[in-house]
Design a protein that fits this description.
Layout (H helix, E strand, L loop, with lengths): L4 H33 L5 H22 L5 H21 L11 E3 L2 E3 L1 H19 L6 H21 L3 H18 L3 H21 L1 H11 L10 H12 L25 H34 L3 H25 L17 H20 L6 E2 L10 E2 L4 H26 L1
Antiparallel strand pairs: 1-2, 3-4
């Protein structure tokens, strides 16, 4: 089996399995409430199915399109994503108190999902061309500044969950690029202070944070969602009450088809179902990081790490929040939660990962990894012993030629 082929197969199987399982669980979480309320039980199923088909098409296209071309369009992606994040704040009306969606008739798109991919591509390209930041001053320009601009626009929507996902992704990419812990540590501390200020300035964020500490003290108020999630997870037992047989989703558990999808899985499929979901995300993280490890192109390596952490990091934060060991952030469960924009971008990201697995290990690629102090291009796949033998043969040939010329002159 060729290098990267096993990781690619794992990535494809896990992704398609999660997407298919997500469609089933979206239908399970939405059909009963829609039927009770007199709506269309298939509404969310149809929209999620259409997004899944379009996303798989994007994944296949991205798998065949050379990922290295993304470096050329990275500035354009950043400008477009920033423009859409700004436009959604002033043009489109708010939904449930938040301005996160651009709508054109039945089509709805969330610009923050494009922002994740745009920042990953741009940061990978910049870190591949420049040495890794080794001080807070170097980290500030331009990586930190651009991250602050993105986070500021997201907090205005408000969408703190996506801002957290961007920070996690960017931190992993900087670590792989070679930024030392003595720089990342203070940077994380500064980000934590700014995040705390953002939580304190918004009453609903402040209430959500404090209710995480004691959700049962206000079980009918600000702690209602997390309490209902705990009830759903606990009532499932080991094997669950059965697929489609859960009751928490019927007007008890808010956002059962998006942020709280894991609670619905825990109630209907029990501990076994939740463990399988966590294992699937662990396999995804393993395959993605192995692809990054095998990649010989600095741009591809950093991009693979960013996209892998984008998926596995969001999954980790969502699982922790639903289980009550972290505050609620609004981060959905990748591939499983309802959301067309998220599914499209995630499947396109998987296609890019598969492309990196295929092209990033090419034996003829040329590598220039300036982030780790190596500014000389070298041929990938050439062994150090082989290059030394070649140099030795060249010296021997020159020595013999010189001796022959000396003998001819004498």
């Amino acid at each position: 089996m060729k290098r990267g082929e096993l990781e690619s197969r794992i990535l494809i199987l896990v992704t398609l399995a999660l997407v298919a399982f997500g469609i089933v669980m979206v239908y399970s979480a939405t059909s009963a409430p829609a039927a009770v309320g007199g709506g269309n039980p298939n509404y969310y199923l149809e929209r999620q199915g259409i997004a899944a088909v379009l996303g798989i098409v994007l994944m296949l296209l991205a798998q065949r399109w050379d990922y290295r071309r993304l470096r050329r369009i990275a500035p354009m992606l950043v400008l477009v994503s920033l423009g859409l994040l700004a436009a959604v704040l002033v043009i489109w009306p708010p939904v449930n108190g938040a301005r996160r969606w651009i709508s054109f008739g039945p089509a709805v798109f969330q610009p923050s999902e494009l922002a994740k991919l745009a920042l990953a591509v741009w940061a990978a390209g910049w870190l591949a061309r420049h040495p890794a930041p080794r001080s807070l001053q170097q980290l500030w320009r331009p990586v930190g500044l651009l991250a602050i601009v993105y986070a500021g626009l997201l907090l205005l929507e408000p969408d703190m969950g996506t801002a957290i996902a961007l920070v996690l992704m960017l931190g992993a990419m900087l670590l792989v690029a070679g930024t030392p812990f003595r720089v990342l540590g203070p940077a994380v501390a500064i980000a934590g202070v700014l995040g705390t200020l953002a939580i304190w300035m918004e009453p609903y964020r402040r209430a959500r944070f404090f209710v995480f500490l004691h959700p049962w003290h206000d079980a009918q108020g600000s702690g209602f969602q997390i309490v209902q999630a705990m009830i759903g997870m606990g009532s499932g037992g080991f094997f669950g009450v059965g697929l489609g047989q859960g009751v928490q989703k019927i007007f008890y558990l808010p956002e059962a088809h998006t942020d709280m999808m894991l609670a619905n899985i825990g109630e209907e499929l029990g501990l076994v179902g939740v463990a399988c979901v966590i294992f699937a995300y662990s396999l995804f993280a393993y395959a993605g990081l192995r692809i990054a490890l095998n990649c010989r192109d600095p741009f591809g390596k950093r991009l693979a790490v960013g996209l892998t952490v984008l998926v596995s990091g969001q999954a980790f934060v969502n699982v922790a929040a639903v289980m009550g060991i972290a505050p609620l952030t609004g981060i959905p469960l990748p591939f499983l939660s309802y959301g067309g924009s998220s599914l499209l971008v995630l499947l396109a990201s998987v296609g890019i990962l598969l492309n990196i697995a295929h092209r990033g290990t090419a034996e003829t690629a040329s590598v220039r990894d300036r982030g780790r102090g190596n500014s000389r291009a070298r041929a990938v796949g050439t062994r150090s012993g082989g290059s030394a033998d070649g140099a030795r043969r060249v010296r021997d040939v020159r020595r013999v030629s010189g001796s022959r010329r000396s003998a001819a002159r004498s």
